[in-house]
């Protein structure tokens, strides 16, 4: 068959190393240097929100105040308790003609401290944890951990904690059973080999000065925390403290074609959506970037997408514009990309993946219309018109893109933010970066795919 006809009929997968020019590959590498830096400085949702707001303020964005005057080119951001942020650039068109929205989540799986985490057993002090998000517990043993936290004291003082990231900082870890004595443990399933209640972090060994006997080691840890941060055991109750991997993000592979690091679900989409949003100075439509919290636990809570923080902010914008537009009109005329990661084909785990439809590393951003569970339960399942509109934007901008399935049918379940925007009657579809080792302490993504995400979101915000 004629090659021209074949090119017209087929939708072949294209490798980025062939699709991109050498100059574009170099640009992708340069772009990811800043991304790696961002990953290393934003391991929690609070740190990510703070970093994003700092970048936006450099571009002239100011905190939103209810009743503020808005006009074309206006730049605002609305922070929800420092854990979720909505950024908005006012467009040339009225809000009634719709908003261009890209939404990512900035929380990642981790080990949260319990409300009363510190205890002593056998002259060892431990931090008791409750895992956050869907993890494989065994992956969190035997690796260096850092402690990140935010404490709101009853006297109004707010304290940030970070231990384990600087070269001379102490680090932490969760000890596992040595293999010589683990015969019974190794007979168990991976899920049961390390029970979640055993994911407790070793905090220290030494007794408090002048103390001995039961409780002396725990008291010493409290003493050290008080001396450095001025906190007491009661302050743990109003604290958000977690353990995250202490190792930094870095280039991966001899060819440096990938980025490896913790928390790339979903910062590998949140960062490109942020840089794209900030790069579009004068959009035709009002543009919003949503960086949401709590996605890994169902999007509940006041900083999650099941709350009203986004719709409340948009209603305040409508009022500031004059109030002639209706919320239902604004939302139904809007267009949203849920920017989240997808699985990718990996030959060592073929049994769980769709051989024909799975996304591949280094083949561009992944467009996926559905995910969910079983018979597409709990999924948005984007309509054909929305898919076609996004494909048009991607093709016109010469974006390398592919499709993804998220694993074999009935192999598992998952979800994205798209379902919460569809509840608002906003046309929405998923577009993101394929990711290896999703939800593990160290995830991998291709630099070309990350760069394509930035270009894709930029093209979306420039739509007319």
Architecture overview:
The chain has 464 residues and is an alpha/beta fold. Helices cover 28% and strands 22% of the residues. The strands form three sheets. A nine-stranded mixed β-sheet has the order 1-2-3-13-4-14-17-15-16, sandwiched between helices. Strands 8-7-10-5-6-9 form a six-stranded antiparallel β-sheet, covered by helices on one side. α10 (384-396) links the parallel β15 and β16. α3 (22-41) packs across α12 (447-461) and α7 packs across α12. The two termini are 38 Å apart.
Helix and strand topology:
Blueprint lengths: L2 H7 L6 H4 L2 H20 L3 H14 L3 E2 L11 E6 L3 E6 L9 E7 L4 E12 L2 E9 L12 E8 L5 E6 L26 H4 L7 E4 L11 H14 L9 E7 L4 E3 L5 E4 L2 H16 L6 E7 L16 H13 L5 H6 L2 E4 L26 E4 L15 H13 L4 E3 L14 H5 L5 E5 L10 E4 H15 L3
Parallel strand pairs: 1-2, 4-13, 4-14, 14-17, 15-16
Antiparallel strand pairs: 2-3, 3-13, 5-6, 5-10, 6-9, 7-8, 7-10, 11-12, 12-18, 15-17
Shape: globular
Unreliably modeled segments = none
CATH architecture of the largest domain: 3-Layer(aba) Sandwich
Structural class: alpha/beta
Query: What's the rounded overall pLDDT mean?
Result: 95
The helix tally amounts to 12
In the residues, how many domains can be counted?
Answer: 2
H/E element order? HHHHEEEEEEEEHEHEEEHEHHEEHEHEEH
Number of strands: 18
Kindly provide the name of the CATH class of the largest domain.
Answer: Alpha Beta
Predict the CATH topology of the largest domain: Aminopeptidase
Strand order, main sheet: write it out: 1-2-3-13-4-14-17-15-16
Give the radius of gyration.
Answer: 24 Å
Identify the CATH homologous superfamily of the largest domain: Zn peptidases
Could you give a short account of the major beta sheet?
9 strands, mixed
DSSP strand content: 15-25%
Distance between the termini: 38 Å
